[in-house]
Every structure is written in C-alpha cells, then in structure tokens.
Amino acid sequence: MSTFDRPRQIIEFCLKPLDLDPKSEAYRETARRLEHVIKTLQLAAGPSSAPVAVDFSRMPTLTINEAAHGDD
User: Fold this and answer.
1) What does the alpha-carbon distance between residue 28 and residue 66 come to, in Å, rounded to a whole number?
2) What backbone torsions phi and psi does residue 51 show, to the nearest 5 degrees?
C-alpha cells in the first residue's frame, strides 16, 4: 500500500470504497471539507514545509460494535 502525503490523495483513497460519483455536488462538498480538515491538521502537526504523510497500511483495524450502540 502506498503512503499518501497530499490531501487530495488521502481523500480519494478514503472515498473510493463508497463508490460515489466524483462529479456530484455531495462528493465535491465532502472532498472540500475533508481537504480543509486535512490541511488544518497538517499545519497543526508542525511548521515543516513537507506535508505529513499518511500510511494506511500501518493504520490499526477499527472494530465497530453495532450492538453496543443500539444497532438501529
């Protein structure tokens, strides 16, 4: 798996499983908001001129227990 350091790469990777139409208004608005969040977090991570990279292969598995949250 690749390491991503550009906001657009991270966003496209994360939204891909949703199979959304990239030309839809909802997709564009979601991507715009995520890009703002990612850039803000990268700036907060430090004054380095290089963006903070995200390596999804090192991301721990997240298990959601739906029954514990009402299982609606």
Assistant:
1) 29
2) -65, 155
Residues contacting residue 43 through CB under 8 Å, at least 6 positions apart: none
Separation of alpha carbons 15 and 29, rounded Å: 12
SS3 content of the chain, % helix, strand, coil (to 5): 55, 5, 40
Sign of the alpha-carbon torsion through 45, 8, 31, 19: negative
List the one residue out of 2, 3, 7 whose CA is nearest residue 38: 7
Specify the pTM.
0.61
15-65 pLDDT, tens digit per residue, is 888 889 999 999 999 999 999 988 888 777 777 666 667 777 776 766 666
